[in-house]
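Extended Data, panel c. Modelled sequence:
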Amino acid sequence: MLGDVKYVTDKKGKRQEVILPFQIWKDVKNELEALREKHQILTGLQQSCRDVKRQKKGEIEEQSLEGFLNEL
């Protein structure tokens, strides 16, 4: 399937652009979106873990369940 990929090069032969079959482009785009979503979730979890540590140290105030739900 990747054999269908074409490259546009400059005068020195350096690759400048890529031409993909549309289905490959759609697959790549979908996978990229899934990775972005995973990254966003993992970043949120990482921040939550930091917040819990700071709460345990008393650096920030704990949030009530009601306050949390109101933020949604």
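The longest strand covers residues 15-19. This feature is highlighted in the accompanying rendering.
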